[in-house]
Write a structure and sequence with these properties.
Layout (H helix, E strand, L loop, with lengths): L2 E6 L2 E6 L6 H9 L9 H21 L4 H15 L18 H18 L12 H5 L5 H37 L4 E6 L2 E7 H23 L4 E2 L16 H13 L4 E2 L3 H6 L2 H27 L10 E2 L17 H24 L10 H25 L5 E2 L1 H10 L8 H4 L1 H14 L3 H8 L4 H7 L22
Parallel strand pairs: 5-6
Antiparallel strand pairs: 1-2, 3-4, 7-8
């Protein structure tokens, strides 16, 4: 490998000759060999979008030579088209605020712009990473703006996956609407419910979280670019914030707006913490749904076994024929990871001091990573598990018939105490509730059929109608 010599305020350093990054990026690589991870693509793209918008803004305002602005824009367009991604090398766990990542982007764009203008790498002339690519910017307004852009740009994948999962759950709700089964509370037998009602409720839960995520995302649409060092806007011309938002909106298609208070958005990470909290709330319910799917599919002989899951892989290296709920198990693990990511976002969001929160790199990495893995998990859960679920109607009917909780329908007729005694007797004798009602001649004919109508027990109303037992009866 050959090298070129670059200089910064700390001295000289040998940089790989063909690298588009420069000395400040190299120092960051040497200082932060932490995770072996690279910056997430959405974070790279967000910062490059900002640099591109800045070049357009300064060209429009006349502050930057159009020739230099066009070179920066061309370099940015190459990155946004997927080129030079290997040049973004700073570990997510880096110096506070994201200066290293910001300079990595500045150096790559400056070097590539100079190449396009026929100048050698490392010359930083005529395009300089700080003076030109970073013109009117600070890490302190670039990174929080990029955080918001990256989050908003990544969210649609999750929303699309949520739409698919919700639709599949609701479709299963219709498919299974006729399947009567035992409800369960406290993991104990409860009154009847339809399998379709369970799945419809899951679908509505997922759909409600979509609305919450979209609502929380609106807080991220305000852009504090133009705040520069401490939010006051030093070194940025008055028209700069509005022009930046105009160009960012055009490039990303996102409904962005100029921040009302750029100082506030630099001090506070509350908006992104709110959004992360909405993600946490979703994955907690998603995890519960995956838990339920595993429980309903438990068996096939010694569990509930009320539903059958698609077999996606052999389940054991030692037990032939075993098939596990592999997709639901994966979803659980992703949810646990996402909850941990939100905890990091929460702790880092409260860690700012005065005019800046220096924990922005880890906040950005965690929220974007969360959106990525949860979107993938939701899509796979939908496509490889939920859509292929089948009901074991015979098993559902068997458990329902055995349930002592069916006495609940009798309570309005014979009273709570008598119904409780009947339930206890059913458990002790192994007889079903219906068998005991017939044996004891508690209800007969049409009245018995109406009160013990299992489908009616899954709807609003008093089974068998009537006003119930007399007061004190």
């Amino acid at each position: 490998m050959t090298f070129r010599t670059e200089k910064d305020p700390l001295g000289d350093k040998q940089v790989p000759a063909e690298a588009l990054y420069g000395i400040q990026t190299l120092r960051a690589v040497e200082n932060f060999p932490i995770s072996g991870l690279r910056p997430l693509p959405a974070f790279v793209e967000a910062v490059v979008h900002i640099k591109r918008a800045a070049a357009l803004t300064h060209k429009e305002s006349g502050r930057l030579d159009p020739k230099l602005a066009d070179a920066i824009i061309a370099a940015a367009d190459e990155v946004l088209a997927g080129k030079h991604r290997e040049q973004f090398v700073v570990d997510p766990y880096q110096a506070g605020a994201g200066t290293s990542h910001n300079m990595n982007c500045n150096e790559v764009l400056a070097n590539r712009a100079n190449q396009l203008l026929g100048q050698p790498l490392g010359s930083y002339a005529p395009v300089h990473p700080n003076d030109d690519v970073n013109m009117a910017q600070s890490t302190n307004d670039v990174i929080p703006t990029a955080m918001r852009l990256a989050t908003l740009a990544t969210l649609p994948r999750l929303l699309t996956a949520i739409d698919g999962l919700s639709a599949s759950l609701l479709a299963k709700g219709q498919e299974f609407d006729h399947v009567l089964k035992s409800g369960r509370t406290h993991l104990q037998d409860a009154t009847p419910i339809r399998l379709g009602q369970e799945f419809t409720a899951y679908g509505h839960t997922v759909a409600r979280h979509r609305l919450k995520l979209v609502q929380a995302a609106t807080w991220l649409q305000a852009m504090n670019i133009g705040g520069t060092a401490v939010g006051t806007g030093i070194n940025a011309e008055p028209e700069y914030p509005a022009l930046m938002v105009k160009h960012l909106r055009a490039a990303t298609g996102l409904p962005l707006e100029v921040a009302e208070d750029r100082i506030q958005l630099m001090q506070s990470m509350g908006d992104v913490a709110t959004f992360s909290g909405a993600c946490r709330a979703f994955v907690m319910d998603l995890c519960k749904i995956a838990d339920d799917i595993r429980l309903l599919a438990s068996g096939p002989r010694t569990g509930l076994a009320e539903i059958l899951l698609p077999a996606v892989q052999p389940g054991s290296s030692i037990m032939p024929g075993k098939v596990n709920p592999s997709i639901a198990e994966m979803v659980n693990q992703v949810c646990y990871q996402a909850i941990g990511l939100d905890t990091t976002v929460a702790m880092a969001s409260k860690a700012g001091q005065l005019e800046l929160n220096v924990m922005m790199p880890v906040i950005t990495h965690n929220i974007v990573f969360c959106l990525d893995i949860v979107a993938n998990a939701v899509r796979v859960f939908d496509e490889r598990c939920i859509r292929g679920i089948e009901a074991d109607e015979a098993r559902c009917a068997f458990w329902l018939e055995q349930s002592p909780a069916l006495v609940t329908a009798l309570a309005p007729k014979i009273g709570y105490a008598a119904a409780a005694k009947l339930a206890k007797e059913a458990i002790a004798t192994g007889l079903t509730v219906k068998e005991l009602v017939i044996k004891k001649n508690l209800l007969v004919g049409k009245e018995r059929d109406e009160v013990l109508d299992l489908r009616a027990m899954t709807e609003l109303g008093v089974p068998g109608g009537g006003k119930g037992i007399p007061a004190g009866g």
